[in-house]
Design goal:
The protein is mainly α and about 90 residues long. It has a domain of about 55 residues: Ribosomal protein S18 (30s Ribosomal Protein S18). The mean pLDDT is about 85.
């Protein structure tokens, strides 16, 4: 049994290295007044999406969280969503 007889291990898919959307040239600036940009990093329920999903660096994630909190305080963004769906059907 030689080296060529060993089965090759294939990876199921190729995962691309995530890069921070706020670093590099032409990157948007994090500002609490830019609610369109900030709303991309908030879930439907009003929670901030973690950096492991959005690929934002730690430093920029802290800036982003501070900007979201400031926009909420200034009443530009809601703390929670307007419609709360419990997931249960009507029991009447």
């Amino acid at each position: 049994m030689g080296v060529t007889d060993a089965p090759t291990v294939r990876r199921p898919f190729f995962r691309r290295k995530k890069t921070c959307p706020f670093s590099g040239s032409n990157a948007p600036k994090i500002d609490w007044k830019n609610t369109r940009l900030l709303s991309r990093y908030i879930s439907e329920r009003g929670k901030m999406i973690p950096s492991r999903i959005t690929a934002v660096s730690q430093k920029k994630q802290r800036e982003l969280a501070k900007a979201i909190k400031n926009a909420r305080y200034m009443a530009l963004m809601p703390y929670v969503s307007n419609e709360i769906d419990t997931g249960r059907g009507s029991r009447r």
